Amino acid sequence: MATMEVPRDLDAVLDAAWAAARNVPGYLMENEARLLGIIAACAPAEGAIVEIGSFKGKSTVMLAKVAEHYGLGSIVAIDPHNSPELLDTKADPGASSFQDFLGNIEAAGVASQVEVHRAYSKDVSNAWDRPIRFLWIDGDHTYRGAKTDFDGFFSHVAPGGIVALHDALNVFSGPIRVFVEDMLRSDRFGAAGFVHSIAWSQFRPQDGTQFHQRRAQLERVAARLIPFVQDDQPLHGLKKLRFKLNRSRVPRAAVRPQEWVALLERSAEG
Questions:
Q1: Per the domain annotation, does 167 fall within a domain?
Q2: What value does the mean pLDDT take over residues 232-258?
Q3: Which of 47, 59, 178, 263 has its CA 20 to 30 A from that of 38?
């Protein structure tokens, strides 16, 4: 596993990347975008940065700016650009975010830094043969969708690499179930956490057992959300209040680069 380092200029690089990404339409909060930049810059593994779910390019621009500065290679951006959740496909069955996506990465000056796949993740994963240092999942938020995205690429995540899912603390079944069931309950993963609605964990197949207790503590509070979101329906009344109460118990504060790296290095229990 590669050594973890925080580049001395990372804070300035994150500022510049967010300045380029902030006005791109999308649902990524600033603290979430900065976490993506930290992971891209500091993940102690070799391989590609793979983004599943690009929409109009907000996270793509953030990641590409950081990757460009540190010579991390292209961002692999996978999206069919026809999401019925994000586009009015009922009024316009041919609605697409693709041209906006291309325009936004071009305007940000990172088009040459992005490997574009206008496709579903399963169509790309079927032929994928490269190691992955950071797998960022922000596609179909149903359980079937998130599980397909995770299963399709997880076998390629390099030891020390990071897997992160967006909207794990929103009312969707997929991200939270995959995080709890496939990551927090697996001793192949190490450090784990939330920042706003991003759930992340480090793949540590050799020594993930050392993090078992910490993952179990997080799993106990995170798993309480699953019954509320398992049918992917809006919440109302008392059920909505109970969901929010349980969500408030999940630690999800922003982290600075040094703090995030320290979490990965705390391999011993206690």
A1: yes
A2: 96
A3: 178
